[in-house]
Design brief:
Number of strands: 4
Protein name: Aste57867_15081 protein
Helix content: 10-25%
Organism: Aphanomyces stellatus
Strand content: 5-15%
Number of helices: 7
Order of helices and strands: HHHHHHEHEEE
Distance between the termini: 96 Å
Radius of gyration: 41 Å
Structural class: alpha+beta
Strand order of the largest sheet: 1-4
Shape: elongated
């Protein structure tokens, strides 16, 4: 097919290859804008490729062959919608063209799952329940902020097995030890026990050291 002589005459000699483009050539016979665009394979056609190495005019934009469909063909001779439908089973009810789900029928004709609630004839939508009954289900209880804090702190609480007191320290009564027990924590960075700040000023507890028995 020859190019329209009027268009050919109007194009400057150093213009881009494609129809209607007057940009100067920068590489080969294309301008900077069209330098990565493909050429139609038909004769002297100066149109850009649309699909399958052809422009729209020469068959690069074929229509779906399904009766009454005007969409572009994507898979073989069919569009995306009709191409996928041809690979899926259709509802077995006469005259129905919907995709079959359960029992070889579409949802409308009984192919969908029913709601788990007794005596409910509505199709299931969310977690086995219909939209109405799904909102009535009690969600699982989530842990409170207090429970989460206890869970986070428990691995860091260490109960000492031996209380060692240096010889030159004060005598520590059982009541004092009992009150202080449980506030001794392990410092992971130091690898030893450290006392809580609230007890550092107590002369009875200033020199108390807590260690593990081997």
């Amino acid at each position: 097919m020859s190019m329209n002589p009027m268009i050919k005459d109007e194009m400057p000699n150093n213009a881009c290859f494609f129809n209607g483009c007057t940009n100067p050539i920068v590489a080969g016979d294309k301008c900077e804008f069209h330098r990565r665009r493909g050429k139609c394979l038909v004769g002297d056609c100066r149109n850009q490729v649309y699909a399958r190495h052809l422009c729209v005019r020469h068959g690069g934009k074929r229509l779906c062959q399904f009766p009454g469909c005007s969409a572009n063909a994507r898979s073989g001779t069919l569009c995306c919608r009709h191409g996928m439908r041809s690979r899926k089973k259709q509802c077995t009810v006469d005259g129905c063209t919907k995709v079959a789900h359960a029992r070889q029928r579409c949802v409308r004709h009984g192919g969908g799952r029913m709601c788990k609630v007794d005596d409910c004839n509505t199709h299931a939508r969310i977690g086995g329940y219909c939209c109405r009954h799904a909102g009535l289900q009690t969600p699982p209880a989530s842990p409170t902020h207090h429970d989460e804090m206890i869970k986070m702190e428990q691995p860091h609480i260490v109960t000492p097995t031996t209380i060692m007191v240096e010889e030159d320290t004060w005598d520590i009564t059982p009541c004092a030890l009992e009150a202080w027990e449980g506030y001794c924590i392990l410092d992971p960075a130091l690898g030893c026990f450290t006392e809580m700040d609230s007890f550092l000023n107590d002369p009875l507890l200033a020199d108390v050291k807590c260690v593990f028995e081997p």
